Amino acid sequence: MTVLLAAALAVLSVCSLFVGVIDIDVASLMSGSLEQWEIFLISRLPRLLAILCTGVGMSVAGLIMQQLCMNKFVSPTTGATISSAQFGILLALLFMPNSTLWGRALFAFAAAIAGTWVFVWFIQRIQFKDVVMVPLVGIMFGNVIGGITNYLAYRYEMTQALSSWLVGHFSLVLRGRYEIVYLVVPLVILAFVFANHFNIVGMGKDFSKNLGVPYNVVLFLGLTIAAMITASVVVVVGSISYIGLIVPNAVAMFKGDKIRGTLVDTALFGALFVLVCDMTGRVVIAPYELPIELIVGILGSILFVGLLLYRLKNGRKAVRLPAAGTSPCSSTVSGLDGGENV
User: Fold this and answer.
1) Is residue 336 part of a domain?
2) Structure confidence by residue, pLDDT tens digits, 287-331
3) pLDDT > 60? residue 333
4) CATH code: domain of residue 63
């Protein structure tokens, strides 16, 4: 599976370099055409790198959040992380209107981390919770943050300035304006290093202490990694929903729930999924382009409803009190293959 995903990603990556309004062909590049090389290096190649980093980053962020919360419906979308990052960008536009992209990224990082922590803190206070209730609470919390963001944007006439970060698209990705997304690479490597620790923390606080793993430190680290990955993507590309929700679930159906065993496949499939959606948006109404958020939203909504119905049909629907030492985000965990509690 890993080899097939890597091969498909490599082939489609090469094809995507030659898909666009302006035709680029290998012969012109080999002949040294200055105009062709300029388009290739300034637009097509940066766009491809941004797509790959976005797919890898959002998928891994979703996998980390699901593992730490032991809930397959938790993701940057349903955990208020994306909404918090957008709120941080708005604060940067309000208080530092002349800030650079890196300055806005710092605000987005801080807001995304804080919003994710508040979501987990809030979930800890819910006595009754099941596999579906937790993400619904996250969606409501994200909508509250989104409402505050929209109010402030209208109040201070920042709606147009904020619109670039409300809908995800790669059409404005050019050399010099996307390099922040490279932060995804070291963060994903860090996630792979601590993959086993995330697995242990997902088993509960008491279980972690018995194995000598600092529960709060690892939980803090994992949520921070997921929030920073999400914020770095939102600052460059904008909001892209469902990737962190759909991709880890799809891979887990074939590879299981162990994060170290699924991390590489999740990253590859996430990059492939985003790349396919972006290429679809470029060719459906060519020479115009559909935002990738629209394509991912349509496919993601359908798959999300399918996963929801699958969980309700095959998972345990009983609601029980959280036992001592259980994971902070969910006390009821439904397995992917028959409703076994993990």
Assistant:
1) no
2) 888 888 888 888 877 877 777 777 677 654 433 334 444 444 544
3) no
4) 1.10.3470.10
Contacts of 152 (CB under 8 A, 6+ apart): 90, 94, 158
**The pLDDT value given to residue 311:** 65
CA angle 19/181/163 to nearest 5° reads 80
CB 295 within 8 A of CB 281: yes
For residue range 110-129, list pLDDT tens digits in order: 999 999 999 988 887 776 56
Domain housing 201: 2-314
Q: Is 267 within a domain?
A: yes
Residue 244 contacts residue 303 (beta carbons within 8 Å): no
Q: Is residue 330 part of a domain?
A: no
Tokens encoding 293: 């958020």
Confidence band (pLDDT; 50, 70, 90) for 88? very high
- Residue 260: name the closest of 199, 213, 204 by CA: 199
Tokens of 185: 């690479």
Q: Are 234 and 222 in contact (CB under 8 A)?
A: no
Q: Give the pLDDT mean for 122-140.
A: 76
Q: Which residues have C-beta within 8 Å of that of residue 139, sequence separation ≥ 6?
A: 77, 78
Domain count, the chain: 1
Residue 167 has pLDDT above 60, yes or no: yes
Q: What's the CA gap between 341 and 224, in Å, rounded?
A: 27
Tell me the CB-side half-sphere exposure of residue 244, using CA atoms within 13 A: 30
In a domain, 321, yes or no: no
78, 138 Cβ separation under 8 angstroms: yes
